[in-house]
Amino acid sequence: MKLRTAIFASLIATVALAGCQGSVFDGVGAKAERELPSKVLAKIKAKGMNKTSPVMARIFKEEGVLEVWKQKTNGRYDMVASYEICKWSGKLGPKYVEGDRQAPEGFYSVSAAQMNPNSQYYLSFNLGFPNAYDRANGRTGQHLMVHGACSSAGCYSMTDESMSEIYAFGRDAFKGGQRDFQVQAYPFRMTAANMARYKNDPNYQFWTMLKEGYDQFEITKVPPKVDVCGKRYVFNQNFPGQQGLSASAACPPMSQPDSIQSAYSSYQKTYDAAFSSALNKSSKKQPAPSIMGVQEAKLVSDWSARRARGEKVSRTPPSLSPASSETPGAPDTAAPTAIAQTPVTAPAATSVAANVPAAQPVLDQNATASVPVPNNNPAATAVVAPQVTPDMPAATAEKKSLWNRLTGQ
């Protein structure tokens, strides 16, 4: 009996350490080929899109939202769907090191090979962390996913219903010939008011870099061409005579199309005025907790490692920020729950057309990662009891069958 218990505990620990990886126990099912709902297909048609046209996604941590954008027949993108994120891991701010529990922020590229129809968490796709920027800055981690089940040891977790649609958008785009789709992961919507709110945050410089890509998409409504040089992201740049870029070396001479430069200059003037105005106003919304740089990341990583070894550690990870968005004593992972699908209204978009071809970035997808614990989505307000269906078994059923799965009994 003791031996059986020990083996079981060891296997459970192995599964937990796998983070958001897929599971060998779940077979590929019809869920990966499920069609988009008829109302979504009707919306696609009404917006002048094709079912298999290219897609991209934007993630906003603080708002707890994942948006899906799709290319119209005129080459521009329009938002076609928005989903509440059920859980995400860590705090605002980028991922630094293995085990720091941070969900990544930045620009990622997802190929068909990164789609996992055989995921332990219903369906999933790998974000491709670390990308060229992450590696150039010494950031480590692996298996950072967007997945279903609304329950995990990290990543961006969705309800199964939401993940089924998100997965279908990507699958259909690949069938239409898209090589990879871009995922832009942000701490919050990068408006003047929000940037002013976080002007004193230690991650502010990193966020202003991300904002360049955010702004270029807002201007053009085309996913920006993303490159990395000088250990930073650069967007929609041309490198005359350059055969290849080094993510760590200084950027070579580069240029940007005149149409984008002109549109960006106009956009920036409007933004600067709004930012100055926001600085002179007191925001009623307080900043959310954010990671205090690599020092806190290493503290949390060490806590994660000691915890994985079975050492007695605090229930919650160490924190250098004055407050935490985590609930003290909360369980490491939650049982699958269904979050009511409430419509998310997209903010008004700045419409300044620039003649730029729709180019998808090609970022290195070699992975290396972490085992974070999810935070509840602050935007999720309604939680209902999980529904047991053939495609989404109840948590209790999963627990009862796990030993049998592992042992063949």
Q: What attributes characterize this protein structure?
A:
single chain; 409 residues; alpha+beta; 6-stranded mixed β-sheet; 9 helices; 15 strands; 15% strand
> Structural class per helix/strand content?
alpha+beta
Mean pLDDT: 79
Poorly predicted runs of 5 or more residues: 1-18, 22-27, 323-409
How big is the Rg?
21 Å
**Strand arrangement across the biggest beta sheet:** 6-7-8-9-4-14
Could you give the count of β-strands?
15
Q: Specify the number of helices.
A: 9
Specify the helix fraction band: 25-40%
How far the N terminus sits from the C terminus, by CA atoms, comes to 15 Å
Order of helices and strands: HHEEEEEEEHEEHEHHEEHHEEEH
Strand content: 15-25%
Largest sheet: 6 strands, mixed
Shape: globular
